[in-house]
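If your schedule permits, I should be very grateful for your opinion on a structural question. The matter concerns a single protein, recorded as an amino acid sequence and a row of C-alpha cells. Could you please explain, in whatever detail you think fit, how the C-alpha cells follow from the sequence? I set the record out below, with my sincere thanks for your time.

——
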Amino acid sequence: MITLFHAPGSCSLAVKAALTISQLEHKITLVDLGKGEHLTPEYLKINPLSNVPVIEAEDQYISEGAAILQYISELAPDANLLPRPGTIERAVALKWLLFVYSNIHPHFARAFSPERYGDDQVDIKKKAEAALQPLFGLVDDQLTKTDFLASSTLSLADLYLLVAIHWEGILDTPLTEKYPHVASYKQRLLEIPVLAAVYNPEFMH
C-alpha cells in the first residue's frame, strides 16, 4: 500500500495520475496548502521542506516528485510509463520529465509565490512568466514531432507537463493562447479517459 500526500491542483497530481494508471494499491491523504497543513509540526516531520508530493511506502517517506514517479513506474512496468531500463528511449523520457521538474516548475513556483523570492513581487512574477516563454517554445516545437512529449506514447513526462500547463491561469497570457501545439496537446491528453477522470475534477476548481 502506498499513501500519497496530495494537494489538489499541485504537482502531486502527476503522482496521483501515475498511481491510477499503474493500478497500484494506494490511498490519498489530502494536504490543504491554503490552510497551511503543510506547515504543521506533524507534516514537517514527514517532509521538512513542507511541500508535496510525499509518499509513504515500505515504512519510509519519499519526497521529490521525479523520484516518486520513477519509483512508481518501476513498481508497475506493465503500465509503460517509462521505457525499459538501458534504452535510449528511457533516457529521452527521463530528460523530458526532468526538464519539466527542474526548468518549468521552478518558474511557476515564483509566479505563484513571488513573496518568497524578494520584495518586488510584481517584477518577480513578470520575470518568471518571461522565463517560461522559451521553455514552452521548446515544448511547442517538440510537440510538432511527437504526439506526446517524449515519444509517440504516454510517459511520466506528460503527466507532469499536463499539470504545469494547467497552471497557466496564474500567468497574464495563457500558454495555450500563445503555443498552438501545447493547446492541442492538452486537449488530446484530456480526451484520454483515465487522464480525464484524474485531472478534470481538479482542473475545474
User: Anything to note?
Assistant: Residues 88-202 form a domain with the Glutathione S-transferase Yfyf (Class Pi); Chain A, domain 2 fold (CATH 1.20.1050.10). The chain has two domains: 2-79, 88-202.
